[in-house]
Amino acid sequence: MAHAAATVLDMTADLDSSATAAEPLRVLIVEDSKRLREQLGESITSPGRIEVVGYAETEAEALHVLEDAACDAVVLDLQLRQGNGLTVLKALRASPSSEHITVIVLTNFAFPHFRERSLKLGANYFFDKAREYDRVRDVLEELASRPHHL
Fold this sequence. Notes:
The chain has six helices and five strands, in the order H-E-H-E-H-E-H-E-H-E-H. It has helices at residues 2-21, 34-44, 59-68, 85-94, 112-121, 129-145, and strands at 25-30, 50-56, 73-76, 102-107, 125-128. The radius of gyration is 18 Å and the shape is globular. By secondary structure, the protein is an alpha/beta fold. Strands 2-1-3-4-5 form a five-stranded parallel β-sheet, sandwiched between helices. Residues 1-21 have low confidence and may be disordered. The longest helix is centred in the first third of the chain and has 20 residues, at 2-21.
């Protein structure tokens, strides 16, 4: 009888771990253009796989949302309505609780010095909005397919 109880517990553990693996990737979009925020949100959302957990258009909003919203990835523009994405990136990487967050810089300012600075500050990816917009979705899909999004 003890063996039957152990089997049930083992099956429950398997169900719990598969439920955790199936949690969607949570994404914050930090972008000053409302049109681009909406377009990006629509293009990356994939029911059950990728969900947008928040939007921000200023540095202050981004920092506030990052304090409150649990996310696995941030799509970050460098030019914001107020402030800039580099300051958000610095603050994000200064917090040990957010070191697991993947940062994807998506900007019109895809100059070598901005790329170098972003990567040095801890961005995981740096994409040009004009030429590499679609790569954001590819990266997020790949992240969503990883167990526990690590």
